[in-house]
Design a protein that fits this description.
alpha+beta, two-stranded antiparallel sheet
Length: about 70
């Protein structure tokens, strides 16, 4: 958390200044704040957007997980 606050306090990215430590602490596993200087969706260029990332569907190395647990 400290590294993200470094960016907001340092003034290096004005789009992230709206984030505070409480918002960062409330992030659940698989959630993140994203900002982009250029994007096809303008929501990402106006400020940080909270997103939900789905869990990976492959094992380390690229093997596919099966629905039946590998049976």
């Amino acid at each position: 958390m400290e590294s993200s606050l470094h960016f907001t306090r340092g003034g290096s990215n004005a789009a992230l200044t709206g984030l505070n430590s409480e918002q960062m602490a409330r992030l659940q596993p698989g959630e993140a704040y994203v900002w982009a200087g250029k994007a096809t969706d303008p929501a990402f260029t106006h400020g940080a957007v909270r997103i939900h990332c789905r869990p990976r569907i492959t094992k380390h190395g690229g093997a596919t997980k099966t629905a039946g647990g590998g049976r």
